[in-house]
Amino acid sequence: MIPRFYELTEDHRILNPFRPPALQTSFDELPISSVMMIERKPNEEPTDWISRPSYFVSDRMKRLMEMVDEAMLFKSVTFIDQGSGEQLSYWASHIPTVLALSDHSLFYPNGSIQQLVLQGEAVKDQRIFTLEGVRGSGVIVRLDVAESMLRRGLSGFVLRKVDLE
């Protein structure tokens, strides 16, 4: 049976999602645990999945991702609002990359992906990954992982079906 895959994209239905600042270092240079002082905007909604400016996940999503791929790396980042002292705990995540872009994929003139098509053979054993060398592609998850995310009521993303060749 050929597995089905979905791309995690930002949920634009959330009107005021929490947007942490970009990490100042690469994931490899980031300490295992760090604290960042921030100024939160009023009524920002924390979500389980943050894809911009870096990949951050909540504790609940981290536990699921660890079940999916025990080798996936995470580093703790706590954001503290300077005004209220409120703390938001997230995990910076390093998601594995896979070279699996099909020649049948379509691109916009600026180089970002228009229609994503994956090489079925290259992703058959993958459960969660990003695409190597593809601008504008998000995290790809296999159907069973997508179903687990939905069953747990995780927030901050929508699922978009990805085609396979």
Topology:
Blueprint: E1 5-10, E2 33-38, E3 49-50, E4 56-57, H1 59-68, E5 73-81, E6 87-94, E7 97-98, E8 106-107, E9 113-115, E10 117-118, H2 120-123, E11 128-131, E12 139-142, H3 143-151, E13 157-164
Parallel strand pairs: 2-5, 7-11, 10-13
Antiparallel strand pairs: 1-12, 1-13, 3-4, 4-6, 5-6, 8-9, 11-12
Overview of this protein structure:
- The chain has 165 residues and is mainly β.
- It has helices spanning 59-68, 120-123, 143-151, and strands at residues 5-10, 33-38, 49-50, 56-57, 73-81, 87-94, 97-98, 106-107, 113-115, 117-118, 128-131, 139-142, 157-164.
- The strands form three sheets. It has a six-stranded mixed beta sheet.
- The mean pLDDT is 91.
Please tell me the overall pLDDT. Answer: 91
Give the low-pLDDT segments: none
Instruction: Provide the β-strand percentage band.
Output: 35-45%
Q: Specify the number of helices.
A: 3
**H-E order:** EEEEHEEEEEEHEEHE
Tell me how many strands there are.
13
The computed structural class is mainly beta
* Mass-distribution shape: globular
